[in-house]
Structures are given as structure tokens and as C-alpha cells.
Amino acid sequence: MERVAVETKVLSQNDQFAEANRRVFERNGIAVANFMSAPGAGKTSVLEKTLRALKGDFQMAVIEGDLYTTFDADRILAAGVRAHQITTGTCCHLDAKMITRALTEFPVSEAELLIIENVGNLVCPAEFDLGEDLRIMVYSAVEGAEKPQKYPLMFQTADAILLNKIDLIPYAGVSLEELTANVRKVNPSAPIFPISCRTGEGIDPWIDWFRHRVTGLRKRHAA
Amino acid sequence: MNTDKRRFKNSFLICVHLRPFMYMHEVGIAASIIDIAESVAQGRAIEKIHLRLGAFTGVVQEALEFAFEALQPGVLLEIERIPLIGACPVCKWTGPPEEDYCLICPRCNSPVNIVSGREMQVEWIELEDHLNGTSRGRDQSSEPERSVRRS
Predict the structure, then answer these.
(1) Which of B24, B100, B124 faces A149 most closely, judged by CB atoms?
(2) What per-residue confidence (pLDDT) applies to B39?
(3) ipTM score of complex
(4) How far is A176 from chain B (nearest CA, A)?
């Protein structure tokens, strides 16, 4: 028997596609944000609010990941933003190659901000770099307070965490302090924005932060 | 050649028979591990694949082993678990988290950096020898070494 050293990362192929995507985005001065969450946490609702608020600031485009349906892309189009749907079939996450392929069908060179809405899933998407600049996680107050400890990786890799559906906190048997403290343990540094897409509470600070980060990223890409 | 077809068929069967786990990404990860090993083996038979797998990855070890076994029966997947270790840039504390996945320094409450636990890497593979006789030949060649050590 002969032992041969390999020393290759399992996701190295994905990482190569992610780097290629990143170069395309940087060359075109596009800031890219990857939105991730469990199913039903409110990613699409957050996007609707965000797109409407930033319409006057940036040229935007959205890539939607979903297992089978185009409901989400239809909602984005209704908000007046170009959208492309990737239906992943049996695949539980978007990978970098899917984005590379989508870019050939969906030109984004004129966009200033590209938002990718990942497949609703708390595990797999966190392992797959798509070439994004920012990872935004949406965590809803009704999912239970222990989710950051059960699915730590996605929380840990997020650049910002939107704590959605805070209007339902009185009915969920949890407190905002408990939710925030549990997120803090796995991600001590990312900003946490408590929001409610339904009432509009807390949306403004999130929009201000996101606008500021996207503007900064675009300046860096242009340099 | 037929490997791709067989693998596709196997992935498909896994999906059909295990609907609850239908979306598990460990199938794709197992396929990537096999691809990496095969590209190094260049046609030689693989006996064992050694994988370094960190505790802080989005991979369920049992699901990965199951998917691997279904895709590549007969090849042994040896998994080396790497614990999550953090290091505090402020007070220099280092160690495993005191609470599950807690990345706050237990000594000074600063955010800690991850030192290990994110690994997912094919470290080495073991290949069958080219000729059936070779393996026996090597055993014999190692014999004198042992006797030297004994004396």
C-alpha cells in the first residue's frame, strides 16, 4: 500500500469559482451581499423593505435561490428591481458555480449592488463562499432562542444579523435580551439589528448601516 | 467513464430512498472528496481516504459517512476530528470554548479568533500497489529493518 499526500480542501473547487466571481464583481464595481436564514425567517420581506429604501441610492439586481418556486423572484420584480431566479432542485444551498452560471444569463455589470438571496437553510449555505462581500443573516424571534448554539456557523460567519419579527416577541416566550445574548456568544462583533418588517420598527438603522457599508465597498472596488 | 453515471445513479437513489435527508449537502461533499482523491490516484485503486474535519463546520459526520459509503463502497473514509480552539487576541487565552461554540473569551470577555475547527481537507490517500506481488515484496523488505532494531 502506498500513502500519497493530498492536502486539498474539500471545497477548493467552490472556492475557485467564488474567487472568479469576486474578480468579476470587483472589476465592475459591484458590492455583493449574500442573505441567509432558515426558511420563513423573512429574508424576502427584508429584501422588499431594503430594495424600496435603497432604490434612490444604487442600481440594484437580485439573484434568488429557491428549491423549486419563483415566488420570491416575483416579489422582487414587484418591488421594481431586476431579479433572476436559480431553482436549485434538490440542492439545499447556492454554490459559487451556480452564481457563475447565472451571471452568463443575467448580466449584472450595470448594477452597483447585487443581492443574493440564498436558499432557506441554517446549515449548508454557510459553508459555500459565493464571492460576496457581505453576509447578512436574518434570524426571526419566533425560531427559538437556542438557534445560535444549534447552528453556530452561519451566525459566526455573518457580517450583520437582522433579528426579525420582534413584534412577535411577546407571543414567543423569549426576550430580546436572551436572543441577543445567544447571538453574541457565537458572534461577538457583528452588529445586531432588531427589526420588524411588519411594523417597520428598527428598519432605518439597518438601512443606514447597509447603505454605509455598500458605499464603502464600492469605493474600495473602484480604487 | 461509467463512474459519473454510476455516481449520478447512486446520488439519485439516495435522494429517492431517503426523502427526509434529501437535501443533505453531505452527498455533494462526499462526491467532492472522491473527485479530489481520484484526481490524485490517476486510475489506481484507492483503499483509504483520510479527511481532517473540524468540529466547527456545517457537516454532520454520520451523514457524510453514510453518503460516502453509498457513493463509494469499498473505500474506507477515515475521519480525523479537529476540535474547535479559540485564541484571545487581547489576554492571550487559548483553548476550547467553555460553553458550546461560545467565541467570547472566558477570561476577559473579548471576541476570540478561531485557531482550529474549520478544517475540511483531504489530507492523504492510500493506494493499492500497482502489482499484486508488490505489497508482499514490501513486507519482506521491511523485515530486515525490524530485525536490525531488535538486535
Answers:
(1) B100
(2) 96
(3) 0.86
(4) 19
